[in-house]
Protein: Probable farnesyl diphosphate synthase
Organism: Lichenibacterium minor
Amino acid sequence: MQVLYAQPTLVEDLRSAVNARLDTLVPVGHRGPQRVNEAVRYALLAPGKRIRPLLTLLAAVDFGAAVGDALDVACATEMVHTASLVLDDLPSMDDARLRRGQPTVHVQYGESTAILAAVALLNQAFATVTRAGRLPCETRLALVERLSAAIGFDGLVTGQENDLQDRGATSTVARLESLNHQKTSVLFEAALEIGARVAGAADRSIDELRQVAAHLGLAYQIADDLFDVSLATGPQSKDLLKDANKPTVVSLLGAERARERFGHHLAEALKLLPARGTGGTPLRDYIMVTFAQTRLC
Amino acid sequence: MQVLYAQPTLVEDLRSAVNARLDTLVPVGHRGPQRVNEAVRYALLAPGKRIRPLLTLLAAVDFGAAVGDALDVACATEMVHTASLVLDDLPSMDDARLRRGQPTVHVQYGESTAILAAVALLNQAFATVTRAGRLPCETRLALVERLSAAIGFDGLVTGQENDLQDRGATSTVARLESLNHQKTSVLFEAALEIGARVAGAADRSIDELRQVAAHLGLAYQIADDLFDVSLATGPQSKDLLKDANKPTVVSLLGAERARERFGHHLAEALKLLPARGTGGTPLRDYIMVTFAQTRLC
């Protein structure tokens, strides 16, 4: 597959802006107890691809908003994502010991502090959207609601519960993809929609972005599974053993057909994304580059 | 102490309204996975005194708002409180087996489902405030922020972390009361302030309510500890052993001086609460009745 390194500077600049802003939004020595504060920063500021906040920012840019208007709400999506990782890794869930190249939060700080850090992160995500002062009141309220929809009964909570309860029994690609949708696509959806709403995009465009997100989430999970399988040697950045006994699209279809399915979902997502003349848009280019790589972390 | 059963009908009516509304806000068969949905309802709808939503509703009524305007945001405070109980009871925290007269959520549904249920409850609290359509946008946004302040680095997360990390070493009444403030007063504060803000109360009144809440939280914790100590026989509604090795105001001062201190905090709270002519207000009467009893659950 041809990989276009279009506008790497823009993406790098945005990723740096996200990292810098996250650092500010959860400052050192926040008035809370140092241990939870440290654990939150440990989880949130560890090296990550920042895919969700980049989706928010690039969607905002694509639809004509200023980066600064979307930066805080973009950071909120990363807080939610990080909270979900901290929870998923817990001993009572996936019991993972390695994440983003470092010991998981509960290994480093203990289980109770990890749980409280996840709660603090979710809470900080809502606080951050609420305080995004550049946005009108109605927009902020809509984005709080959008974020809560991605987390709650129809979102990540569902995905994680189904993953824990039903995954072992999941033996069809359709059911696995429904699970992957709940675990991954819902936050991609929210991230893209939040960016588009900051820019005041039309409802029709937002419907299209939802379909883009659905395909991206499924492509992402397959790439993630392909990466796990192909990583026979070399330094590990996350705990692979935890997923060893779970069925995946790769274990059900084999690597080659899974790779085809990945290509299908990526192509469908790109087809739905508006191009600009013969070139792409920043969002389209970013997705091509990022999702064409298998090392997604 | 003289106990006034003033306006029992109003309080009972409000409690019933809260229970009925909570049931609606987290409906059976919510689209999410049944197990988390069930666990949330199990925790939230178990018999509770509903102190926090009653504080919200009575503060709202005291300052002239309609009950209906404050009902949803009152329910949100109960969701936050219930989430904090579910988390506090976890094996990695207080490891309690009994709460509100029934097995704790993790005993009944497993640890991972209990954690996800707590996350779903916190999330639903934010969603509920966001959707409280009778309130202006600015008010809803302010209340989301107020709720997040009660949960996060300056709120319940702090309280629980400090309780777990420092409680064993806490040997002065001043430090214990600071801890009790973080664990209890912060949500009382938020509950009262939220009710007052719904009614458009002045900032000065809200400052006074904060002081009321601070005293109430401390009184409440002492009463709770006195109740634990005095409960030698009879049916238990919560797990008392979990607190057996923790220092409390009662273990530091003895029951009699603790009872005096309880009386002091309650009197200070009542002194700050506006009376109406020679009688009380609904809020003042409720606090007198509720906090003069030791069985607070």
User: Anything to note?
Assistant: The first helix of chain A runs from residue 8 to 25. Residues 8-291 of chain A form a domain with the Farnesyl Diphosphate Synthase fold (CATH 1.10.600.10). The CA atoms of residues 39 and 108 of chain A lie 8 Å apart.
